Amino acid sequence: MRILAIGGHICDMEFSCGAILAKHARMGDEVYILSTTVGEKGYPWDNEEGVKAYRQQKIEEGKRCGEKLGAVESWYLDYEDSNLPLSREVQEVLCDEIRRIRPDIVITHWNKATHNDHLNTALNVEKAVSLAGLPSHFSKYPVHGVKRLFYTDNFEDPIDFYPNVYISFEEEDMQRWQEAIRELAVGRGEILGIPFGDFYQSYARTKGIMANKTYAQAFYTNFKVRTDKLFTAIKPE
Questions:
Q1: Cα separations (Å) of 73 from 65, 97, 104, 178?
Q2: Which of 32, 84, 144, 236 has its CA 20 to 30 A from that of 46?
Q3: pLDDT confidence bin for 4, thresholds 50/70/90
């Protein structure tokens, strides 16, 4: 199985579903992480050189983080942080990436996110998934239909997010995930003074309790399913 996680910035998918990506990499599945922007404006730099330096830092951190999660490929698109457009251009770029990777599963942000880059990523991904499976949409890659689209739980975008799937993971996945996200300065709590790594670790324990497991990460999907390789725990309706 192939899983493609598409986030608005380097760190978004790594935080919100990184443990599940690590789990499936351990299981032998192919995991890919794509960011639509680097996220270079995630620190209140007061000069352009600081933003450029942090951009390069995040690119290097994201590569190391992806490697530790077990990703086959971890890369980014060259759109400006905080200014990702909702456009046909972005959708066609994402469509090509989906057709190139040919994932069974695509994971992205909640489509009612309040952060502009998160929201536009989700909406662009939805359209790109549709385009990728459309035979009459021509590109350099062959048509590909994605089997499942998941929206991941991000504490920055809680409005109307009601997960219907909890996917559990093991202690070894937790350790790999925590080691990976601490490659990110933002994961270590060095940016904005927020210990994101600690937060998401605690969040995963909370979700695990809700799913009657040790650890879990939460998702929403439009598909009504009862059993699937990806599903370890289903929230009762």
A1: 11, 12, 16, 19
A2: 84
A3: very high
Residue 91 dihedral angles phi and psi, to the nearest 5°: -60, -40
Q: Structure tokens of 221?
A: 């999907």
In 28-137, beta strands by DSSP E: 30-37, 73-79, 105-108
CB 131 within 8 A of CB 88: no
Q: Residue 194 — pLDDT band, cuts 50, 70, 90?
A: confident
Please tell me the predicted confidence (pLDDT) of residue 237: 42
The residue among 156, 37, 136, 152 whose CA lies nearest residue 94 is 37
Q: Which amino acid is located at 21 in the chain?
A: L
What letters, b where the CB count within 10 A reaches 16 and e where it falls short, cover 132-166? beeeeeeeeeeebebebbbbbbbeebeeebebbbb
Question: pTM for the whole thing?
Answer: 0.94
